[in-house]
Amino acid sequence: MQKKRVSIKEVAEHAGVSAATVSLVLNDKGSISDKTRKQVRKSAKELGFILNKSASRLRSGQSLLIGLVVNDISNPFFAELSANVETEAANAGYLSVIASTQDNVETQKFVIETMIGQGVAGLIISSATGSDEADFEVIRKHGIPYVLCVRELPGYAADFIGFDNFQAGVMAGEHILDRGYRDIAFVGGFADNTNRISRREGVKYAMRRRDPDLALVRDLVGPATRQYGHDATLELLAQSPDTSAIVCINDYVAIGAYAALKEKGREVGADVAVIGFDNVPESAAWNPPLTTVELFPRSIGSRAAKALVEKIRDNQRPPERIYLAPKLVVRDSA
Amino acid sequence: MQKKRVSIKEVAEHAGVSAATVSLVLNDKGSISDKTRKQVRKSAKELGFILNKSASRLRSGQSLLIGLVVNDISNPFFAELSANVETEAANAGYLSVIASTQDNVETQKFVIETMIGQGVAGLIISSATGSDEADFEVIRKHGIPYVLCVRELPGYAADFIGFDNFQAGVMAGEHILDRGYRDIAFVGGFADNTNRISRREGVKYAMRRRDPDLALVRDLVGPATRQYGHDATLELLAQSPDTSAIVCINDYVAIGAYAALKEKGREVGADVAVIGFDNVPESAAWNPPLTTVELFPRSIGSRAAKALVEKIRDNQRPPERIYLAPKLVVRDSA
DNA sequence: CTGAAAGCGCTTACAG
DNA sequence: CTGAAAGCGCTTACAG
């Protein structure tokens, strides 16, 4: 029952020209008379012709597909990033294929291979935790341009667009110290997440600079979720009751911390300071409004797409690493 | 500098068999000896072979690509829906292509054609406001299975997975009336959005059932954004100061209403009731926690993907419409 | 159990 | 300015 698609051949017959001519017109190539051009376009439209990209990709080796690999598309951070990649790519004529890895290296491998199989012209990747160079070797082997974003592979010479996480950590740390807090805990995120490491080291750097003897009260490792923020904070209050400030790996962890603190009768922003990262839109409406370090997923998305498009045009371009500056947003929680 | 991809032919040579045999092994078809099978797989692995899907799709007409068309991927509602489509599709062996329409009919047309050109096996569409049957005619003509979700085309015989928006409206209306509010306004969303119409009619139905003379104080049409929620509420307070309850088209509009009410010194949940739709995760943490009608984007996503996969297997299946029941979540704002 | 050959729908030199 | 022909990398009857 699958209807027959109309091919270039049928358009050619309808227009009274050859298939080659139709192809030339459709791709705005060659020197075709205006009359023929018009006739071909008219026939194509009348027949409802849609170019079969599989065939054209196969023959020409040219693709207008871009692949975006993220950890979890339902995370608002990546959703916003994806939206901008998509828009920017569309401006350059590319369609985006998006897939999530669930932050799992095996899934990431599968997804990348599938995308290569689909014939993507290039790839934008926020690498899964635990990735190393070998995981991107397939891409190199196939000569496909790619840019990494958000999560960096230390010492890996590839294009990268991300934040200066260390600086973000320093900003958070200095702000808390300025407010007079000294017993600081770091909560959430997995141990080998490079963003986590940089942010935490930034906080520690700010602390040492203030007072060489100052160290984190606790460093709690776990998923970057509201639930974990809640549970970890409870643990923190039980085991290190003197903790006066909690630096959370993101705003969701922070809202979990809010809940735990309220359960225990501690006032957020007065008894205990809480600071997050991301500045999700809702955090301004929380009670109290959250102090956080804003990152810019939308900028990352469009910069990454632009970089990839350039890379596709010239794969010889030497790799660039771009770090966007974070911004401290002071509200009432710290 | 583009490296040459290894083809099935090279694998065949390396394994000492024909290309046909390699294809058969890779697709688990035909009756190939175990020995040959193993040798072929080994060669494919050694050479880093990845099947060229463009070629296989061209030849076989079979595709493992699914297209998802939504209004705006950065909207958490669609982000969650998309995530589940993707997961469910992946379980069935399909890769998802996601694209946003910006709720624009022209963009939607372009996106659908592009996806057909890419050779998708099926399409899941949350139609742009203002779409009609003609916009999906291309898909039918090409014999491509598709299912609509979230937004319904009235009277259109196609598979559909969505919510019972009328029921959601009734739930919101009845709750507010039970709490004693009578001067109710409806805020946000565009006039021809079918979800908006159904929700509003549900509210009005609940009102008439309570008292035939009861009618909405105001019906404010506009974008479903926080900003509009804020501005419209300000307008409402100025022009209809007796308004005692605001039904917002979604939770983001509701948080905008919160802001405006606070600016004007009105206490949310006491002076003026506010109710939303969606139950975005953060709404529980707002001040006060939001009363809202929960919808289930994740369920829509997985149901839609399942329906599409079945439809791809049997395009003769008569269209089904599935309406998921909403759930009232009572907190402190109404 | 395996191979030779045709063909999917395009694009691209090349010839005229 | 336009057409005939080859070929991209696969899959699929068919023959043996």
Automatic annotation (TrEMBL), chains A, B:
Q: Enumerate the UniProt keywords alphabetically.
A: DNA-binding, Transcription, Transcription regulation
Name a Pfam family for this protein: LacI
Alphabetized InterPro entries for the sequence = HTH_LacI, LacI/GalR-like_sensor, Lambda_DNA-bd_dom_sf, Peripla_BP_I
**UniProt domain HTH lacI-type: residue ranges:** 6-60
Q: PROSITE patterns from the entry?
A: HTH_LACI_1, HTH_LACI_2
Matching entries from Gene3D superfamilies are given as: 3.40.50.2300, lambda repressor-like DNA-binding domains
Instruction: Please tell me whether the keyword DNA-binding is annotated for this protein.
Output: yes
**What GO molecular-function term can you cite, just one?**
DNA binding
Q: Does the keyword Protein biosynthesis apply?
A: no
Q: Which domain of life is it from?
A: Bacteria
Instruction: Give the protein name, as stated in the record.
Output: LacI family DNA-binding transcriptional regulator
User: Which organism is this entry from?
Assistant: Meridianimarinicoccus marinus
